[in-house]
Amino acid sequence: MKSIHHLIDGVAAPSTSGNTTPVFNPATGKQSAELDLASIEEVDAAVASAQAAFEDWSVTSIARRTKLMFNFRNLIAENAEEIAALLTAEHGKVLSDSAGEIARGIENIEYACSIAEDLRGAYNESASSGVDVYTVRKPLGVVAGITPFNFPMMVPLWMIPNAIAAGNTFVLKPSERDPSAPLRMAEFFQEAGFPPGVLNVVQGDKVAVDRLLEHPDVKAASFVGSTPIAKYVQERATAHSKRVQALGGAKNHMVVLPDADIGLAADSAVSAAYGSAGERCMAISVVAAVGDVAEPLIEAIKERMAKLTIGDGTDPTSEMGPLITRESRDRVAGYLASSVDQGATVVVDGRDQQFEGDGYFIGVSLIDNVTTDMDCYRDEIFGPVLCVVRCDSYQDGVDLIKNNQWGNGAAIFTQNGGAARKFQDDADAGMVGINVPVPVPVGYHSFGGWKDSLFGDTTMYGPEGVRFYTKAKVVTSRWPDPATSQVDLGFPTNN
Ligand code: NAD
Questions:
Q1: Roughly what angle, to the nearest 10 degrees, separates helices 154-165 and 180-191?
Q2: CA 168, CA 51: separation in Å to the nearest integer?
Q3: Which ligand 1 atom sits closest to the C-alpha of 380?
Q4: CB 71: neighbour CB atoms within 10 A?
């Protein structure tokens, strides 16, 4: 059985704690590896390595940091196929989706290759007589990243490139469900020429997370995962005086107006709801169908659902793979049962589709006549289930979004420019799509939701990401003639 270890100080570090957990292939239900779980001492060793590396790394030239980041980018691109296979084997998503995740991660490395732009300070000459003032941005020190199962490569790459290019050193705690791809990524990072200790990986669970959040040498924590844990991470990290950004769950709405192109809206809803088995924080989980668009839209969605191929992610004909665990699959099935009990109409029931073997598969589902008090609407299902809420007006759709607990993404489908322009203002969410169902920002903008989708002050990657990983220092400088020096207890008036 394959063993998966930590990577500390540039080398593989098998755990001595004796605590391990199994890793499964969701397509077969079979165990594929045994994963080490870090003890407090092992987390401390990773932080100590990062702390030691910080001294030199933080003063390494931007030119050198950028060059290494280019090497890293190229190694990930050249080895994308190998990494995609690791992703699919432990996450279950289809290979093309794994390749897409890596490509979006690479965008963030490319952004960090231009870190000089974001680290450029501001300079004012002669702010006062003979006095110049300038602001520079300094790295924080050791920073930690705690990441979820659904994007085991891309989400660490939302954090690591900017943090490290800005001069910080990093300890990553990947999800324990699919740890192989991020570990391989860290090996390529070493191969790119970065000094040992600049990036460390500790495998682990709550023990490792809690230690990272309280360790005095960890200056900031970036978290992505479910809302309850995001809230917990934010509270615990701030209680230990750390900077924190904690991205949580989501329930993303797609408002479809009566004038929308039905074919385009249906294609988009199906892609955004069932891609990666709905295990995307930007997946569309609710269609707010306005007026008489509901009937034709549901028909068009149903038609497309019937053509989807679900199977092992390594099979090139599969469009959707299994869920991450047996519990996730059963949880999704539970929402279908409760929807029926609570009065919704299950138009397509994923439980009806049979699959061979012990993989964690379930078919795609469509639930109509959903109301906001139903469990399938109130909770983040995180599976291939699309709910339709029928709305009388545009305003009803906007109000749904406003009254929802989460505010990650929201989309509108319409051919009316005025309605779209109004929606971009009205939608109570951090990322808005206009005829775009999954509006994940490109690497040179920043990613983050509102309300219970993000706890903390700054969003992730892009310019906001660099701000999160740096602190400002303002220098006031004067080169007077010492001969004119005198004691002056007055407060400068700048006259
Ligand atoms: P999760 O919250 O269960 O786990 C995330 C990380 O937290 C993992 O590394 C895990 O080991 C750790 N963790 C879990 N329980 C913990 C505890 N009690 N104490 C300390 N640490 C703990 O999330 P997940 O199931 O891996 O990922 C799916 C969730 O992530 C969904 O809710 C999804 O919406 C969300 N997500 C959000 C975004 C976003 O950008 N907002 C992006 C991706 C995923």
A1: 30
A2: 9
A3: 32
A4: 16
Taking CA atoms only, the protein residue closest to ligand 1 atom 42 is 281
If asked whether residues 261 and 184 sit together in one domain, one would say: no
Q: How far apart are CA 204 and CA 227, in angstroms?
A: 19
Encode pLDDT of 291-335 as tens digits.
999 999 999 999 999 999 999 999 999 999 999 999 999 999 999
Task: Give the CATH number of the domain where residue 50 resides.
Answer: 3.40.605.10
Do both 353 and 279 map to the same domain?
yes
Assess whether 401 and 363 both reside in one domain. Answer: yes
Q: Is 281 annotated in the active site?
A: yes
Task: Look at residue 411 in the predicted model and tell me its pLDDT.
Answer: 98
Q: Phi first, then psi: what are they for 283, rounded to 5°?
A: -60, 150
Percent of the chain at pLDDT > 90 equals 97
Statement to judge: residues 417 and 305 lie in one domain: yes
Residue nearest atom 26 of ligand 1, based on CA coordinates: 148
Distance of CA 182 to CAs 6, 33, 195, 198, 209, Å? 11, 15, 18, 15, 17
For atom 10 of ligand 1, the residue with the nearest CA is 175
CA atoms within 13 A on the CB side of 196: 11
Same domain membership, residue 192 and residue 323: no
What range defines the domain where residue 360 resides?
Answer: 252-434
Q: 44 and 161: one domain?
A: yes
User: Is position 327 within any domain?
Assistant: yes
The C-alpha angle with vertex 144 and arms to 142 and 147, in degrees rounded to 5, equals: 160
State the CATH number of the domain containing residue 275: 3.40.309.10
If one residue of 4, 154, 171, 229 were mutated to test the ligand 1 pocket, choosing by the most ligand atoms within 8 A of its CB, it would be 229
For 294, residues 6+ apart whose C-beta sits below 8 A from its C-beta are 368, 388, 390
3-state secondary structure of 407: strand
Angle, CA 409 vertex, CA 438 and CA 374 arms, to 5°: 110
Q: Is the pTM of this model over 0.90?
A: yes
Hey, how many other C-beta atoms are within 10 angstroms of the C-beta on 465? 28
CB atoms closer than 10 angstroms to residue 128: 14
Contact present, 198 and 171 (Cβ < 8 Å)? no
